[in-house]
Amino acid sequence: MDTITADALCEKIRQQVADGRLHDAFLNAISLAETQMAWERTRQLRDLEQSYKYMLHYAAEGADDPGRMSMRRSIGDQILTIVDRLERIGRKRDCSRAYYNTLRYESLQRGDTIASLLEQWEQLGKETSLFEQVASGDTSSAKSSQEDRERLEQRLFDRIWVSFPMAPETVETLAKGLRENRWGDTLPRMIAGALILGELESHDEARLELLLDLYIESLDPALELLALIGLLLALATHRGRVMSDRLRQRLEAARELPTWHSDLSTAWLELVRTCDTERVIRKMRDEVLPGMMKLRPDIARKIKDEGNVNLADLEENPEWHELLDRSGISDKLKELSELQEEGADVMMGAFSNLKNFPFFRDVANWWRPFSAENTYVTRALGSGHQAVLDMLVAAPMLCDSDKYSFALSIASIPESNRETMTRQLEAHSAQLAEMRMASEISTNAPRRGYMAMAIQNMYRFFHLYRRKGDFQDPFNADLDLSTVEALSQDLTDRKQRRLVAEFYFKRKYWQKALDMLLPLADNEGTGKEYATLYQKIGFCYQQLGDFEAALKAYEHANMLNEANHWTWRRLAQCYRQIGQMDKAIDYLRRLEEYYPDDTALAMILGHVLMEKGDIPAALEQYYKVDYIDGTSSKPWRAIAWCMLLTRDLDGADKYYNRILIEGQPSAEDYLNMGHLALVKNDFKEAINAYKTFIDLQGDGIEGFVKSFRADRDSLLQMGADPSLIPLVIDTIQYSLGPQTPETGA
After folding, report:
1. How many Å separate Cα 502 from the centre of its chain?
2. 318, 344, 688, 689: which sits with the fewest CB atoms below 10 Å from its CB?
């Protein structure tokens, strides 16, 4: 069986288990095992199937078995575990994904085990430390020792990553070493990264237990919270898998920690924030950076005019502020600053193009904590750049991945510029010392910051690694942790759920916001708080185009808070969308009583009245707008169109001339002026107006054809000659000259 067929069969089996069709799942899984000649897996499946048959038999006999559903779920999960192993066997031969390339390599290193690699790493640690060797002048030995340690850390990462299922003795070795804090800071975090990446590839409870142990027992908050984030992503990714009693007990132990619930709530919100990262990147790429590039000539000229400008004083210079304000850059930068304060990852875009160094070719290095002793860093920086290192080590706004990008990119900067940058950093040595001191007091560092750094490191790997397509992106999964069975009891707080919903709502992720808001809706709830909740539910439905559902929510909000004008406006909009004009008009009339001089409201009311067919009432609203604001051409267009519909051609002509003289005629105006000329049987003038419309609207003849055909019924209502209407399009096409004939079936 080829790999593609085997993969398809594996997915089919997983779906059958999810659908509860275990008979079919057993049939296909046994067939897959026999095809691969995996006789041990075949035996396991047959034994499991026999147990399932016994359960079905007892159920058919009417036996009372309170554990029946639990047993059935457990059997389904065991099928999935066996299928995971069969899939791995099939792919191991020729799959080109990074995971299987690494697995094949590690399988050939038969003399190495995780335990033996750890022993080698510990032995290197007993040798002279890097700083001691540097102090004694033995730098070659120091570099060699550091390189050996990094090589072993990479091997350990790879070995742990592809180990599946993890052998009990391996689990015990890792658990013991991590519990005893024998391996410093770097290696444990890389081990955690390998456990996370391996678990995202194939579900193995042993890895989840190790991650839980790290969260419960680690003294390093960065490691502790990295493990928590990995655990949560794994549980969300494998939300359909059954949790054993042993793992449930470990989870209960975590719940006893005083930080569990606050950490879980914070982690959930931090994971949710990642959905906004791509939007922030686009804003930087498409709005801020192009805007700054457009300002370059003005900036260069001002620097030339003002002489030697001190860049540190630019904030205090009103002319520079004015330059940024006029360009709109100030508002965009302010928005980005606010997003950063709220926790958005604004650095992703800045560093996304700095991930092509050889350092980032190895998967393990994406999970490596930043270290000034790293050989890639020391080679890139050379000597005399302690200020740069101090800044990178202390910088709270950069994740490890971005720190490595920054350090490695320095090697490509001309030496003169590097020296200038170093001098500038040294001039701020006091601030750097304060940053470093703050970073060293880990007990006072906010836990949210550690979570954010862990998430940013992971997010960059899954989105920027050169072979990212080889990995399933956990950030694309459903990150509603409240729907993960193992966590649902911990995330029932309405305030927390409302916070997540507000995040989605503010950033216009309407479906996600709706998914968060609906469980909060309570028909028994009263007061303005619940009215606001139903308003937001209605608004989400409205933005998604489900106007019937939006109306139900708005009506409920209106019942809870009858005098809310915002709700009345939305009710009018939705009733208009579904064609119930009388109800829309009713709500707009109510609003008119409170806002008699609101021209926008009067225009909307006029449009709804016109759509209903009450032209005189619509004209009354448009005249009202023109009376209140005689400078706007909006009511003129509406009045002219109403006059066209009622065949008041002189009146329509008067208002279209007014638009031409006093307003700024749009493409749509010329289309309507063409209609007026056509109704007046001035065919030549109509064609000229239509051609002007084509020139202005930019969609060519096809855009005109679409608009003209949409107005055909209105033209007949206005009294246009039916024999002229079919001639318009062809006349315009001939007047535009030779065109390329359409091709195709």
Report:
1. 15
2. 318
Rounded-to-integer distance, Cα 577 and Cα 589, Å: 17
User: Using CA atoms, how far apart are residues 157 and 151, in angstroms rounded to an integer?
Assistant: 10
What does the DSSP assignment read for 88-113? HHHHHTT--SHHHHHHHHHHH-TT--
CA distance linking residue 356 with residue 368, whole number of Å: 16
Decide if 239 contacts 478 (C-beta within 8 A): yes
- Which runs of consecutive H residues, i.e. helices, occur in 507-598? 510-517, 527-543, 547-560, 565-577, 581-594
Distances (CA, A) of 240 to 78, 79, 580, 632: 12, 13, 44, 59
Average pLDDT over residues 464-489: 93
Which pLDDT does position 191 carry in this prediction? 97
Task: With cut-offs at 50, 70 and 90, classify the pLDDT of residue 397.
Answer: confident
Q: What CA–CA distance (Å, rounded) separates 253 from 209? A: 11
For 245, 267, 517, 532, 541, the CA distances from 512, given in Å and listed in that order, are: 32, 17, 9, 18, 11
pTM: 0.81
Residue 368 DSSP one-character state: P
Residue with tokens 């009345």, as numbered in its chain: 568
Q: What is the rounded distance in angstroms from the CA atom of residue 24 to the CA atom of residue 34? A: 16
* Number of Cβ atoms within 10 Å of the Cβ of 372: 17
What tokens does 27 get? 């049939």
In SS3 terms, 19-76 reads as CCCHHHHHHHHHHHHHHCCCHHHHHHHHHHHHHHHHHHHHHHCCCCCCCHHHHHHHHH
And the tokens for 611?
């759509």
How far separated are the first and last CA of the chain, in Å rounded?
40
**Predicted confidence (pLDDT) at residue 273 exceeds the cutoff of 80:** yes
Q: Token pair 């540097």 is at which residue?
A: 134
Reply yes or no on whether the pLDDT at 743 is more than 70: no
> Mean of the pLDDT values across residues 460-477?
95
The residue to which tokens 């095809």 are assigned: 35
- Helix count (H) and strand count (E) of the chain? 40, 0
Which of the 8 DSSP states describes residue 286? I
362 neighbors 374 (Cβ within 8 angstroms): no
Structure tokens of 610?
Answer: 């016109």
614 torsion bin: left (phi>0), alpha (psi -120 to 50), beta (else): beta
Per-residue pLDDT tens digits for 288-329: 556 555 555 554 455 445 554 444 444 445 554 554 555 555
- At residue 414, the pLDDT reads 74
Number of Cβ atoms within 10 Å of the Cβ of 650: 8
**What would the mean pLDDT of 551-561 be, rounded to a whole number?**
94
Q: What is the pLDDT of residues 195-234, one digit of tens each?
A: 999 999 999 999 999 999 999 999 999 999 999 999 999 9
The residues near 323 (Cβ < 8 Å, ≥ 6 apart) are 295, 298, 299, 302
Tokens of 668: 């749509």
